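pasting for the record
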Amino acid sequence: MAQESDNGAAANAESGSSSSESKGSEEAPKKEEPQSPKVKQNNASSSSSSDDWGSFYDPNNIFCGKYDCYKILGFDYETWGSAPPTLKEITKSYRGLSRLWHPDKNKAKGAREKFVAIAKAYEILTNSDKRKEFDYYRDRPDEYFQKYGSSVLWTYAPKSDASIIGLVLFILANLFTYYAQRNKYDKVANHLIRAAVEDWSAREGGSTESIEIREKALAILAENREKAIEAAQSNGDTPKKKEKGPRLTSKEKREKEQVELRPICAKLVNEIDDFGAGFRKPTYKDLLVIKMVKWPYYLGSATLWWSKYGIRRMRKLELNEEEREVLTKNAVGVVAWAASTDEERAEMVTLELWVSDNLVEWREEQDMKREGLSANKRKQIKKLRKKGSGGDYGYDDDLHLD
């Protein structure tokens, strides 16, 4: 019995000691590990979307392009304070993310692009010089611009096919030359129609062509009126007596006649394909491609002709008929030459208009003819001008003398 009591006391002592130890261990304060001042690093899943990668001004892709290198690896530059991530922490984050997004293991869409971006961020942040530069330009986009040039402001558009652009421009150029020729023709045609309808004199801008067209139009108008009367009579219609009313003035009669003449004159003018001096209806010959084919011929012909002309002048030979005609044509202009008759051209050649003084006198003569002065009056004006007293002589008051 004594032995059993001793054993029980010993067991109670052991249990008491164990309970006191456990109680003591429970009452002992727990030690907390100090937290790092850095913001908690994002895990791999939080960096799975490029929407979480922040933004950065890097249009030239010097660093991580439009994303923040720190954000790509799961760090927040704005919140870590004075304790930025160490090289060890960057490497640890890179290894975890690279294993997660390695294209051989992750077949998700965009995995390869994310893996490349993670590798680029690791390359920048583990290079001390690149990392310092990246941190420096974070809030200094103007200095980034100064260092890496103006190309950072835009990106080049995809290259266009130069052959297609050239073809389109060539077609437009052909259309332009065609309609430019049409515009030249229409300008002369409209002038001629107006001169014929309004019966312009030479002084007003009329010409022999406008007078001929007006005469033809008047004949056609009279013929049309006769046919209308004959048609009315054949149908048994008797001409109505003129109703009494206000008589038309001469101006109103003239305007009425012009209205009737205009479509007839327009039709007659439209039948003329070529007015001369290059004022003609456009054809396929006015396309740029046709002109380009002819350019070598024209250039070669002109070079050859002027070379011969220069050689003859050095030999002091007399001007031949062809040379006199070409020099006269160049002096008076292509339009005046084309508008002249054969007799007028022969007269111009004899006047040696390639000489400046002769050309000035000839142009004054043409001006006086357009003013309607007689031959005697023109001679009087020439004499006065030669004497020096007729430089400002006015002849508007004597247009119909002689």
